[in-house]
UniProtKB/TrEMBL annotation:
Limits of the Glycosyltransferase RgtA/B/C/D-like domain: 129-233
An MF annotation (GO) of this entry: GPI mannosyltransferase activity
The UniProt record lists the keyword Transmembrane helix: yes
Annotated TM spans: 62-79, 119-138, 150-169, 189-212, 219-245, 257-280, 323-342, 348-365, 372-388, 394-417
Cellular location(s): Endoplasmic reticulum membrane
Principal subcellular localisation of the protein: endoplasmic reticulum
UniProt GO cellular component terms: membrane
Lineage: Bacteria, Bacillati, Actinomycetota, Actinomycetes, Kitasatosporales
Keywords carried by this UniProt record: Endoplasmic reticulum, Glycosyltransferase, GPI-anchor biosynthesis, Membrane, Transferase, Transmembrane, Transmembrane helix
Organism: Kitasatospora kifunensis (Streptomyces kifunensis)
Pathway stated in the Swiss-Prot or TrEMBL entry: Glycolipid biosynthesis; glycosylphosphatidylinositol-anchor biosynthesis
Pfam families: PMT_2
Protein known as: Glycosyltransferase RgtA/B/C/D-like domain-containing protein
BP terms from Gene Ontology: GPI anchor biosynthetic process
InterPro entries, A to Z: PIG-V/Gpi18, RgtA/B/C-like
């Protein structure tokens, strides 16, 4: 038996039922639920097949994700310049080539990467291992080319992330907020990277899974997702810290501290563990940082380069694309501050602030900032909450326009502007 009406959100369970304290819940909108209402929700009866319940629960975010992917690919094909690389090559450009190199050939032999004069060089050791390992596994199992395997891993990870985000924000707020959060995430400017040979989709899925598990008090799952996030990119440290914050909230309720502590230690150890491995392989404790500096001119400068870039573009921009990147950086900062007024679940707030700080706080390659901000989530929260509270005839046209604009922006930067992202 199914029904099409959005049911009121049940009251929060008591602490003994397993929900960590510190979660905030927004009111469920009294208006028609829009897209959620198009998918019948199975009643939670014991007789309902589990697979059917899961399919009905996953359908809305997956539908939005598929629409966003189709729109991004269509606009990318439409904007591709004559004589430019084929669509597949555009999706496998820039850092994707280096990820594929790791997937195909592994990391360089032990020893510091230096030139004949002894100066440090860039190296594939700068790239964390989980994404290329997944690409290699898919290649070996299916026989697909490494490029096709990379795109498949990103697409599947993006779909998983959409479902997990829907469940996370549906749990923190309500189902409509969860749905709009998915839409804004997969259609934001530069969300096209979620379908490229980059690690952002895998990281987003791991981060969303870790936050959801921590909120549910499933510490073993939080530990696994936290470790995987830490092996995906440097921002994985933000996931570990967020899990630690969630653990503190749980322990303060008087619950057992063993599971939360072990999850925190595991999640916070993965990213530093990879840096330590690179240090041992290169013979220098700061080997990973030296490789980053030598190969890409990237270092933690506490936002000095980002500040200079934003002020330069705002006072005398060199082109609309550069100005738009500066505006996106400002929007991410402003949205993150505004989101704090909604008093979000503290681990989510901490995660978002740390990912944003890590993206903006490093030097060089300002054009990469929008891509690095894709998994931050927090700055999208005010828009998601506002759309969830609006009437459907207002919310969905705005959301559709945002999806179209974000998809066009990413396709334009990738196919026409062709700067590194």
């Amino acid at each position: 038996m199914t029904d099409f009406a959005l049911q009121p959100r049940p009251a929060l369970p008591a602490p003994e039922e397993g929900r960590p304290a510190g979660a905030t819940t927004g009111p469920v909108s009294g208006h028609a639920p829009g897209l959620v209402a198009l998918v019948p929700r199975a009643r939670r009866s014991r007789g309902a097949p589990r697979a059917r319940r899961l399919a009905l629960d996953w359908a809305p975010p997956l539908l939005l994700y598929v629409v966003a992917c189709a729109l991004q690919l269509g606009l990318l094909a439409l904007l591709r310049q004559p004589g430019s690389p084929a669509l597949g090559r555009l999706l496998l450009g820039w850092d994707a080539r280096l990820f594929l190199d790791v997937a195909q050939y592994g990391y360089p032999a032990p020893g510091a990467p230096r030139d004949l004069s002894g100066a440090w060089l860039g190296s594939n050791l700068a790239f964390f291992p989980l994404f290329p390992a997944a690409v290699r596994l898919v290649h070996l199992v299916t026989g697909a080319s490494s490029g096709d395997a990379a795109l498949a891993v990103s697409r599947v990870a993006g779909a998983v992330a959409a479902v997990l985000l829907y469940r996370l924000f549906g749990r923190l707020y309500d189902r409509r907020t969860g749905l709009f959060m998915v839409l804004l995430t997969v259609a934001q400017p530069m969300a096209v990277v979620l379908g490229m040979g980059y690690s952002e989709a895998v990281f987003l899925a791991c981060a969303a899974g870790a936050l959801l598990a921590a909120h549910r008090g499933s510490w073993a799952a939080a530990a696994v997702c936290g470790v995987l996030a830490g092996l995906t990119c440097p921002s994985g440290l933000a996931v570990g810290v967020a899990i630690g914050f969630g653990a503190v909230l749980t322990v303060r309720q008087g619950r057992s501290w063993v599971g939360p502590l072990l999850a925190t230690v595991a999640a916070c150890s993965a990213m530093p563990g990879y840096l330590l491995w690179v240090g041992l392989r290169t013979g220098r404790a700061d080997g990973w940082f030296r490789i980053q500096q030598a190969g890409w001119g990237t270092a933690l400068d506490w936002g000095a380069h980002s500040w200079d870039y934003v002020t330069d573009q705002m006072t005398g921009g060199t082109g609309w694309a550069d100005v738009s990147i500066a505006l996106l950086v400002l929007a991410a900062l402003g949205g993150s501050v505004l989101a704090l007024l909604w008093r979000p679940w503290p681990p989510l707030a901490l995660y978002g602030l740390l990912v944003t700080a890590l993206a903006i706080g490093q030097s060089n390659y300002a054009s990469c900032k929008p891509r690095l901000l894709v998994p931050a989530l927090l700055f999208l929260l005010p828009c998601a909450v506002a759309l969830a509270k609006a009437r459907p005839w207002v919310a969905w046209p705005i959301a559709g326009a945002a999806m179209l604009a974000g998809s066009w922006y990413g396709a334009y930067l990738l196919a026409v502007w062709q700067a590194v992202i």
